[in-house]
Every structure is written in C-alpha cells, then in structure tokens.
C-alpha cells in the first residue's frame, strides 16, 4: 500500500507541490485574504435532502427573479418533499422534480433567459468565448454577454442549475430542476432559465446511476433518488444554517486565480495554455467559518 | 405514472420531435448513409473488464504511437488484470492502474503531447476555440491546432483518455490511464499524452463514487473498482469482437451534424447558439451491425 500511495501521489503531483515555480490556483485560493470571500446569503441557499445526504443550491435572483421567487415559494410550502431525481443522462444533466400531485403556480413564468447588463459588474476571462462576444463572471456566476445588446446570461457550466420546460418558452414552472453534470451544454444558454448552481454535494447527483430510458429518464420509480425535503437555509435555526463562501469574482485574488488557471506554470506543466474558458475557471467555493 | 411520463417527456422534448422545424442532430445521425460511418479497427479497441461490466477504449496511434504500442503490449501480456480504478475526482477524471507488482517497460516513453499536422485531415468547427488557433476533428477525435507551428493535439474532452505521469514529461509508462468525466480540462492539452477515448461504457466509470482523498484518490483498497482484465478486440474470436462505428468527421453528414449542433433550430430552441465547441459537438458513435 505504501508504494501504491507513493506512486499514485506522483501523478498530477504538481497540484500538491509546495515548491511550485509559480503560485498554483490552490496556493492563491488558500492565501486569499478574508476580503476576497463573501458568504452566500442564507435566503439564497436551498438545502435539498436525500437518502444520500443533502445537496445545496445557490439561487441567482439577479438573473431569474420570477423563477427564483417561485422556487422559494415551493420550497417554503414543502412542494419538493416526496419528489425525486427522475433523470440522469451521462455527460449532460441530472433532473429532479416535485411530486406529480403537488400544485404548481398556474401563472406561467416569464422566459428569464437573459437580462440587461446594467447594474451588474462583469469580469471577463482573458481569452475569447466560443459561444458569445465574451465570457466571464458576475457575482461569482459564469456569464456570457452580447456586447451590442448589452445583455448577459448564465452559462450552462458544470453544476449550474436551470428550470426544465416544454417547448413553449414560458412553460417552465420551477417544479423540475436540472443540474449540468458533463461538458457545458452551452447550446442551452439563452434557451432556458438559469436559476443558480449546486455549491455543495453535487457528487451525490453526478455519481447516480444513469437512466436507461430516452434522455436518461429512469425506467422505474424504484430507480429514482427520493427528495425527502427542501428548506431555505434562512428558515433553519441560526446554528444549523450552512455557511458557504464564494471567492469574489471582482477581487484581486480572483484575478490572480483566473490568471493562474489560464497559465499553469507549476512544475507539472510543460506548456501553459495561455487561456481558460469560464466553465474551466471553477470559481472557488468553501465552507465558511 | 402515465401523467409523470407524459410530463417528463415534454422536457427537452425537441430532442425527440419528428416534426422539428429543421433536422435535429439526431435526425442527421439516424439518416446518415453507410458511407458516413466507419468501423473502428479491432486492433485499436481495448476492452477493459470490471465487475460492473466492460468499458471500451479506442486508441489513437496517430497521436501517440509509442504510448499506444506500450499499452497494447501491456494489454497482451495481461498487465491490467488485477488492476483497479484508483481515483475518481468529480468534474475531472477517473483513473485506473495496473497492479503495483506488474512490470512496466523500463524505457521512458517520449512526450507525445502534439504532432505535425502533415498527413492528417483537419475538419474545423465553425467558430473560435477558446484555447488554440482553431478547434476541430481529425479521424473522429477532437483536436486543437497551432497554425504557425502546423501542429495538432487531442483535446481533453469528456471521455478522452490520457496517460498519467509524474512531473518529468517522459515519466508516463502507460500503466496509469485517466478518462475525463467533467468539463474539458483543456489546460492538460499538450501537457499529457492523449492516447484515445472511451467509446462504450463510460457511464460505468462516471457514476462511480468519488474518492475522498486529495485529487479524488480512494482511501482504501476496498473502494476501488477492480479491473479484472483487458483484451485487444482483435485478439477476441471474430464473433465476440465488438463492432463500433464512428461517423466520419470528413463526411458531408458530419458537416450537417456539426452545423445542427451549432444552430439548434428545432421547436424547443428559442435562440440557436450559432457556434459550438469541439467537445460539445459529440461525434456520433454507434454499435456496428
């Protein structure tokens, strides 16, 4: 075992090297000052409970206010309890839903697929975006922008959460949510309402067995992972509220972190890429103190 | 259940619509003529057996001939038998290794991280690549190129396989292989020897429990998925050889397919992206007849 561990530890060893030629992204993350971090507001955190444990979603009300309000209302009246993960499609999405018998709002939700950039602070990645005029970050979320229209939208990066819908743009009701568990399906950008991202426990979803029906839906009820309940973190006792911090994408530390992600120059790397797409920047998230 | 299935079937329904406003990628795939497909040579297919079933890797000798030759030699002398999946890091890689007690070639392998484009046919994606002068495909594999140097290399897309190594560029021996199971870690491009991709059974790897040690290594032997054996498909009885076909990335059907992936215009989509990155094109692969 000793030899085994030593040999394996060698692989991708640079990620652990203290003697790196330049600070690694991990070095920058671990040495970032408190001012570079912000705790996510408990009223923007939804805790979903399952027999595998909980996973936590950070909501993005600044991008989909009506959808986020509808989801919060459903959480607060217990609509997700008795729901389940109904679909797991490899290299695409995990999807969970409220039970069929739960009432969802009758009023259709507006297609909140993009919004004006006015009032938001956009931090661009150093290089081009393959799908839009520019890629970058707003409030810690990966975003792409249309420079002429001055609009922005959430990118479908790994872990991002959107609202399932039918063919009509206003047919999503917030009762079906999906999280990306593969390479970013950017073709969904501006076609779906992005409502947030999983900030804890995504491995409980991404490691689920894949569904065998079309689009990765499970064939039987038995295969589904139950959602035993969902609560707003702000409704939990103060001592029981999860504290999750995100590196401020407007901070100097994040600028250094993004630069390091684009130019890996530690001992392991022969040739820094000189670029990084927003989904591969992977904004640092940590448990708060 | 009926209502449940009907409701769920509505979501992302366009992928199934026969009445789409334009042919979907699936339509193009299913209607592509035989000339648009090529069977992978059995001598380029490695079948890895596990208690979860088999997964199959297509080798890319045109990009890493020495590494591929070393892997084939190890497969043929049974080096992978008794090995295991030792590492599963969420949104990154699954890594499997030969047993510690198996001998690996003493001679170091050359750093086959890129190669001249001469003699290869490169099919570019319609838009820009975030990491290189251009992205596209060669022999069905996602590739990026340096136009000035006239070199190309395999992109680290979902499902692509590379050879683990230490800090020295020639320290990989082929006895540790990793497959990408998350958003493309393109910073590894030109820093690792890409040797192929998983063409069947990747869900058996991507749905494994994530390792809890640094870099996703499993803490105990017990957590590891055993590799009970590996065989070259060409060494199996003719009747037992897997037949796997890949859409020719030089075919008119693939040009149509890639265009449809970049401009989703079926009933579900409000706004076609107008672009697609090579990793999100997802070259069609199917079981051969």
Description:
2 copies of one chain form a homodimer. Chain A has 289 residues and is an alpha+beta fold. Chain A has a domain at 42-242: Cyclophilin (Beta Barrel). Helices cover 16% and strands 27% of the residues of chain A. Chain A has 6 helices and 17 strands. Chain A has helices spanning 2-10, 25-31, 65-76, 203-206, 252-262, 278-281; strands spanning 37-39, 45-50, 53-59, 83-88, 93-97, 115-116, 123-124, 134-138, 141-146, 151-154, 160-163, 176-180, 193-200, 225-227, 229-232, 244-247, 285-287. Chain A has a 9-stranded antiparallel β-sheet. A 5-stranded antiparallel β-sheet of chain A has the order 6-10-9-8-7, with no helix packed on it. In chain A, helix 2 (25-31) runs antiparallel to helix 5. The radius of gyration of chain A is 20 Å and the shape is globular. Chain A starts with a helix and ends with a strand. Residues 1-20 of chain A have low confidence and may be disordered. Chains A, B: InterPro entries: Cyclophilin-like_dom_sf, Cyclophilin-type_PPIase_dom, TAT_signal. Chains A, B: This is Peptidylprolyl isomerase.
Chain-wise SSE layout:
Two copies of one chain form a homodimer.
Chain A: H1 2-10, H2 25-31, E1 37-39, E2 45-50, E3 53-59, H3 65-76, E4 83-88, E5 93-97, E6 115-116, E7 123-124, E8 134-138, E9 141-146, E10 151-154, E11 160-163, E12 176-180, E13 193-200, H4 203-206, E14 225-227, E15 229-232, E16 244-247, H5 252-262, H6 278-281, E17 285-287
Antiparallel strand pairs in A: 1-16, 2-3, 2-15, 3-13, 4-5, 4-14, 5-12, 6-10, 7-8, 8-9, 9-10, 11-12, 11-13, 16-17
Helix pairs in contact in A: 2-5
């Amino acid at each position: 075992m000793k030899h085994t561990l030593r040999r394996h530890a060698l692989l991708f060893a640079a990620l652990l090297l203290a003697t790196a030629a330049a600070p690694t992204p991990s070095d920058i993350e671990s040495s970032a000052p408190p001012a570079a971090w912000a705790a996510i507001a408990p009223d923007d955190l939804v805790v979903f409970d399952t027999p595998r444990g909980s996973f936590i979603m950070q909501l993005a009300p600044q991008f989909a206010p009506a959808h986020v309000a509808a989801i919060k209302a459903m959480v607060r009246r217990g609509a997700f309890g008795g729901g389940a993960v109904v679909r797991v499609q490899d290299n695409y999405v995990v999807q969970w839903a409220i039970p069929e018998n739960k009432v969802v709002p009758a009023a259709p939700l507006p297609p909140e697929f993009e919004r004006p950039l006015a009032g938001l602070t956009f931090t661009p990645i150093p290089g081009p975006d393959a799908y839009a005029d520019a890629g970058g970050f707003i409030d810690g979320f990966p975003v792409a922008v249309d420079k002429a229209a001055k609009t922005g939208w959430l990118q479908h990066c790994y872990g991002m959460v959107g609202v399932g819908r039918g063919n009509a743009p206003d047919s999503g009701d917030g009762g079906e949510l999906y999280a990306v568990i593969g390479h970013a399906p950017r073709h969904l950008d501006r076609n779906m309402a992005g409502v947030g991202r999983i900030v804890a426990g995504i491995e409980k979803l991404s490691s689920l067995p894949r569904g065998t029906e079309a689009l990765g839906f499970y064939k039987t009820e038995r295969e589904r992972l139950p959602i035993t309940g969902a609560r707003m973190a702000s409704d939990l006792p103060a001592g029981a509220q999860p504290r999750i911090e995100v590196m401020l994408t407007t901070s100097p530390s994040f600028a250094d972190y993004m630069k390091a992600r684009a130019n890996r120059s530690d001992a392991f790397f022969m040739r820094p890429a000189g670029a990084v797409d927003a989904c591969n920047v992977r904004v640092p998230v940590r448990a708060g103190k």
